[in-house]
C-alpha cells in the first residue's frame, strides 16, 4: 500500500470503534484459517458483528455462499472500497491470512491477529531475503503457532516477541475432522477405490511473475509432463486408486487447460470456491498425501497417514527460497521421490499397506503439533478472551 494511503489510514484509525465488530480477510477469498474461525464464531453464536473483506471475488457471490451455508446475511466489502476501509478502522478484531493493508501500524483500540496460512518448512517473511513484502510487511499484534518450536520460528518470521505468538493450533485443522460435500458434487464414488491420494505441490512460478523458486518446466506438473497424465491414469485405474492433484493458488499452472480422467482429477485453485467447498474437510478424507516443501504436510501429520515428498530440485529451491531448518530433511517424515518410478512405487506400497514411516511421523508430529484435535478455534478464542 502507498505511504500516503498508509498514513491516512493510521490517522483515521483512532476513530470511534465498535467493540463487537470483527473483520475477516483471507487469500483466496473466504477460505483457510479465516473461514474456519468465522465458522466457529458463528456456530458458537458469539455476539459479534462480522464483516468479510475480499480481494477480487463478486461481493454478491460471497454473500450468497454465506447465506447458503449459514442462513444469514453477512456484510461483504471490497477491501479497497471506502466501506471496506471504514469497517476495518472501526473494528476491534481483525483476522487475516496473507496480509491486510501492509505497512499500516495498528491503532491502540484494535487487535490484529495474523492467522497466516501454514507452519513453514520454507523461509517466509523476515527470514526470506527475497520476499518483496519485507519492507511493507503487514503489522500484527498476534500470530498463531502449532507448537513451541513454531512459536520461536514465527516470532522471527513476523518480527514479534514470543509472548505475542499464541500456541493454539491452526483453525483450518479443525476442519480435517468434518464432512465434505466435494465427492458428491463432483460425482466421485469413493467406494470403488482402494485408496484416495491427494498430491499438493507448492508453486515454482507464481501467477504474477514476481517469484520463481526452484526448477519450473513448462507444461509439467512437478516431474510429470502434462501429456503423461493419461499414462498415470491407466496405472491408477489398474490398482484402483484415485489421485487428486490440487494446484497451488499462486501457481502459474492454473492458467493451463488440463484434462481430467477416470482416476485422476486436476483441481485448480478456483474450483473449490465455485462449488462452495473448503479444502481442509476434503484433505481429511485422503489416505495419503504427496507434496514437496509445502506446509500442508505439517497439518496432515495430525492424522498420522503416509506422506511422500517429491523433491527433485532441492539444491535450486534451497538457493532461491531456503528453509527454516538447516537439516530440513530431518523434519520430512516420508518417502523422498525423485523419479516417476519411485512415485508409482509409493502408490503401490500404499495399496499394499506398507508404511515404514509411522514412528518417524509420530516423532516429527510431536515437534510440530502440540495438539491433534479439532479445538484450535476454541483455544484461540479463549486466549484472546473474545
Helices and strands in order, then pairings?
Layout: H1 3-12, E1 18-25, H2 32-43, E2 49-54, H3 59-70, E3 75-78, H4 82-89, E4 91-96, E5 111-114, E6 142-145, H5 148-157, E7 165-167, H6 171-174, H7 182-185, E8 195-199, E9 220-221, E10 224-225, H8 229-239, E11 241-246, E12 264-267, H9 271-274, H10 279-283, E13 288-291, H11 296-300, E14 307-310, H12 314-320, E15 335-337, H13 340-351, H14 358-368, H15 376-384
Parallel strand pairs: 1-2, 1-4, 2-3, 4-5, 5-6, 6-7, 8-11, 8-13, 11-12, 13-14, 14-15
Antiparallel strand pairs: 9-10
The coarse overall form would be globular
Content-based structural category: alpha/beta
Radius of gyration: 21 Å
Query: Low-confidence spans: pLDDT under 50, at least 5 residues?
Result: none
| Count of helical regions | 15
The count of strands amounts to: 15
Helix % is 25-40%
Rounded to the nearest angstrom, the distance between the terminal CA atoms is 29 Å
The mean pLDDT is 88
Main beta sheet: 7 strands, parallel
Strand order of the largest sheet: 3-2-1-4-5-6-7
H and E order: HEHEHEHEEEHEHHEEEHEEHHEHEHEHHH
Proportion in β-strands: 15-25%
Amino acid at each position: 500500500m502507498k505511504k500516503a494511503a498508509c498514513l491516512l489510514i493510521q490517522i483515521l484509525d483512532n476513530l470511534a470503534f465498535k467493540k463487537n465488530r470483527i473483520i475477516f480477510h483471507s487469500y483466496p477469498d473466504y477460505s483457510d484459517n479465516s473461514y474456519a474461525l468465522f465458522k466457529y464464531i458463528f456456530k458458537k453464536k458469539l455476539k459479534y458483528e462480522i464483516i468479510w473483506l475480499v480481494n477480487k471475488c463478486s461481493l454478491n457471490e460471497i454473500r450468497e455462499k454465506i447465506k447458503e451455508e449459514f442462513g444469514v446475511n453477512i456484510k461483504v466489502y471490497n477491501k479497497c472500497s471506502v466501506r471496506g476501509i471504514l469497517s476495518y478502522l472501526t473494528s476491534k478484531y481483525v483476522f487475516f491470512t496473507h496480509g491486510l493493508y501492509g505497512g499500516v501500524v495498528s491503532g491502540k483500540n484494535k487487535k490484529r491477529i495474523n492467522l497466516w496460512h501454514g507452519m513453514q518448512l520454507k523461509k517466509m517473511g523476515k527470514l526470506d531475503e527475497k520476499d518483496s513484502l519485507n519492507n511493507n510487511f503487514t503489522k500484527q499484534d498476534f500470530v498463531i503457532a502449532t507448537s513451541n518450536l513454531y512459536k520461536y520460528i514465527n516470532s522471527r518470521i513476523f518480527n514479534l516477541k514470543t509472548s505475542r505468538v499464541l500456541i493454539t493450533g491452526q483453525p483450518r485443522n479443525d476442519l480435517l475432522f468434518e464432512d465434505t460435500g466435494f465427492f458428491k458434487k463432483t460425482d466421485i464414488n469413493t467406494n470403488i477405490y482402494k485408496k484416495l491420494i491427494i498430491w499438493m505441490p507448492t508453486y515454482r512460478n507464481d501467477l504474477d511473475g514476481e517469484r520463481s523458486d526452484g526448477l519450473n518446466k513448462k507444461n509439467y506438473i512437478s516431474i510429470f509432463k502434462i501429456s503423461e497424465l493419461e499414462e498415470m491414469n491407466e496405472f491408477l485405474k489398474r490398482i484402483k486408486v484415485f489421485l487428486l492433484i490440487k494446484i497451488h493458488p499462486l501457481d502459474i499452472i492454473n492458467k493451463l487447460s488440463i484434462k481430467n480422467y477416470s482416476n485422476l482429477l486436476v483441481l485448480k485453485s478456483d474450483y473449490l470456491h465455485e462449488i462452495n467447498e473448503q479444502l481442509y474437510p476434503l484433505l481429511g478424507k485422503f489416505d495419503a498425501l504427496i507434496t514437496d516443501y509445502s506446509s500442508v504436510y505439517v497439518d496432515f501429520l495430525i492424522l498420522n497417514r503416509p506422506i511422500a515428498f517429491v523433491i527433485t530440485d532441492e539444491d535450486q529451491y534451497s538457493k532461491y527460497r531456503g528453509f527454516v531448518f538447516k537439516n530440513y530433511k530431518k523434519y520430512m517424515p516420508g518417502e523422498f521421490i525423485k523419479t516417476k518410478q519411485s512415485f508409482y512405487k509409493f502408490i503401490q506400497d500404499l495399496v499394499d499397506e506398507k508404511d515404514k514411516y509411522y514412528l518417524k511421523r509420530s516423532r516429527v508430529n510431536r515437534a510440530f503439533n502440540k495438539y491433534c484435535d479439532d479445538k484450535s478455534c476454541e483455544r484461540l478464542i479463549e486466549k484472546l478472551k473474545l
